[in-house]
Amino acid sequence: MTNLLRHRLFWPIAVLVVLLASNLVFSNNFFTITLQDGHLYGSLIDILRRSAPLVLVALGMTLVISTGGIDLSVGSVMAISGALACLLIGDLSNPDSTTSVLLVVGAAIALCLVFGLWNGFLVAVLGIQPIIATLILMVAGRGVAQLITDGQILNVHSAPYRVIGAGYFLAVPVSFLIAAAAVALTVALTRRTALGLLLESVGGSPTASRLAGIRARRITIMVYVFAAAFAGVAGLIYSSDVSSADSNAAGNLIELNAILAVVLGGTALTGGRFSIAGSVLGAVIITTLDITAVSVGVPVETTLLFKAIVVIILCLAQSPTFRAKVFGRFATKKAATREAVAA
Amino acid sequence: MIDVTTPPTPQRNRPLLGAKRVYKANTKHIPVLATLVLLVVMYSVGVYNYDGFGDTQVVLNVFVDNAFLLVVAVGMTYVILTGGIDLSVGAVIALTTTVAATLLEAGWPAGVVLPLALLIGTVLGLGMGCVIHFFKVEPFIATLAGMFLARGLSLLINRNSIPITNDFWTQMAQKRFRFDDGVFISLNVVIAVIVVVLAALVLAWTRFGRNIYAIGGNADSALLMGLPVGRTRIAVYTFSGFCASLGGVLYSFYTSSGYSLHGQGLELDAIAAVVIGGVLLTGGSGYVLGTVLGVLVLGLIQTIITFQGDLNSWWTRIVVGILLFAFIVLQRLVTRKAK
To answer: Global pTM?
Structure first.
């Protein structure tokens, strides 16, 4: 039992279960999943579908945070990738051609890679603090997105493009499949190769890793490129879901939600050890919170208040100092008895 | 990197053997001087290119339109000097204006509403400071929670814009100090200037100010030196919260309304102004004067874009981004040289 309580994913899972359970009280058919027109349908599926962009952004953010950095520019990158894709699709002679749409998607993601390289260059080569280096793109990026769309909301009508965010494959939402593939790819790369270890070592101490023969600089640049690429895909999902590019609304505040998701998942902002499963859980918790607010019937805006309370509770629960202060006497007594028993 | 000198004193250079004594700027002053040069260049370009840009009132309007940002940025300067960050300021402005407008609409006297409004941010800042210090929660996360809390509360109170018709508020909003025909400043500017001067004095000449620089330089060393790290840190976040609330009050004078969406993204403007003003984001180096110049640069960009007429508002963001980049690289070069 204590092992279960001590597991780093215990608290995030507990919060998610409580949130889902509270839905049951307010809407009876919350857990029913039905098959309509060959699509799975239901609140749970909705949660999976709507968490996809946040899961993607949180994945990239996890990698960046594991190296001790942070990426504030993800929201702007989302806006830029959606804006570019919609602009190019608007110029296509045949917007329903799958090949051209794939080319457009490739171009949008390529542009995001460039922005990721830029962030990585600032952090790893110029040695600027990550929070500031990415602040530049966060401020300028939305301007760039508005420049691309000329300040308008671009609407597109393209069946293949619509599939990315709103389509279904074998009755499962495509956006969920994309996010799942990204998670699988990241897990494979970080846990089945040495990459994860290298990331954690760079996060622990860049200097020590460099002395140990790790190319810390290259790894740092790489994580920012990853983060930007994932953010770009998230931007495509978002803009495809609404069939338009809105430079102001796309990815608004998502950097904060993504950081929140990572922290909820138990990855410390100081870098070092990271948990991909935790970040995914964190992202799902945040989306569930938004959906729960709707089903409970409180105004959507007040989810902010919910979030604040959840953040405060989780941060305090994860703060070792707080735990020591509140449960301190209790814990030491227990440890003492355990030691006595062992002796 | 503990800096206890005051902004205007140039560093005494050690006489070099066999070399002439030339004036060399203190490396800590270079970012501020660069901002000053930029400001002068921008102003000259404006005067040269646009009719009527040279009007005194154009400059004064930059102050009138940015008085609230100035106050908020001063609080942010204190926080950033200790090596922290405060993301909650924009949301605190929204909460302050909403609470003030709601209470005034309910018929509360202005004499009660004003202190209450100022208390909101101060208490929130105190709370965030305590969480950051006692529970060792990252400033970024703690103030993010504060931001969600303040924005959520103001949305909970009222989702719509509330007009303020209170007599005192209207009087304050319409109060003008006229120097000449058509040359004036608003009460907001006077309040902002008082805050700036007081903050600069406190930072330069009090023990509290030196403690702030010491903590920003190295918090562990400051603690080992016996400086009151905890008290200073909590005080800094409280001060920033107070500044944000005061900024909110000024904003409600300026717009005569309370709205839960006021001040969105304002924390970014404040951070940008502080960075452009030459305050080191790792803490420990920078001046309130620099922040004032940073706010003026932001304000002047807006003015130039308005005068130009055919440029769109998104150019503001792009130009601010480019300036941020330039100044951050400059800071980087300066600190590298200093080491």
So the answer is: 0.81
